[in-house]
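pinging the channel bc i need a second pair of eyes. not urgent but kinda urgent?? the chain im working w is below, pasted from the shared doc
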Amino acid sequence: MTAYKRYVLTILHTTNWYDEELKPGSKSWKSLEYVRRIHAASGKQANKQNSKMLVSQKDVAITQFGFVGFVALSYQMLGIRYDEAGMEGFVHFWRTIGYMLGLEDRFNICTEDLTSSKQRMTLVLEQILRPALQTVSTEFVQMTNAMIDGLWCVNTFLDYNAFMFLTRRLAGVPGHYYWKDEPTNDGSTQPAYEKMGWHSRYILCMVLYINEMLLQKLSTQPGG
C-alpha cells in the first residue's frame, strides 16, 4: 500500500503540472512547492539515519532524466510523434520543473536549447543509467519490484520482467532488442526476452505492438 500511495501520488502530481498553468497560486505551483518540501524533508530524515545519505543535485538530475530523457532520445520506441518545436517546448517545460525543484542550471539536463539538452541526457544515459541497468543491486530489484507491484492495480500491463526489458531496451543495454532488424548492441544472437516466462513475453509483445505499430501508424496519419 505504501508503494501504491507513493507512486500514484507521483503520477497525480506530474499530471497536475501538465494540466494546470504554472503560475503563483495555481494547483501546479502549489503541487511543486509541496513536492520540493517533501524532498527536503525526506533528505533530512535520511541524513539523520546516515550522514552520507543526501539528496544531491546529481540525484535530482538523474530523476529528471526519468521524466524527459527517454522521451527526447528514444521517442520512436514510445510511439511519440516527433515535432521539433513540440520537443523543444517539452524540454523547456522540464527545465522549468527542475529549476522549481531546486536544480541548479549547471546540473539541469534540460538546457536553453534542444541540442545541448540531448547531449546532457546522452551523458547521463551512457555514463550512469546504462551501466547501472547492466549490473543491478539487491536493493534495486526490491525497489523496482515494489514500484511495479504497487501500481499493478492501476495498470495490469505492468509486469516486472517486461518492464525491465523495456527500460533496458530504451537504455541500449546489450542483448535487449526485439525486432529482427534491431541492433543487438553486443553481437548476441539470443535476445534477453527469450529467457522470460510466457506471461512476461506476452505483455512485452503487446506493449511493443501498441507503441511501435499502432501509435506510430496513428502519428503518421493526417491530424494524428
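so The chain has a mean pLDDT of 88. and The first helix runs from residue 2 to 19. — does that match what u expected or am i reading it wrong
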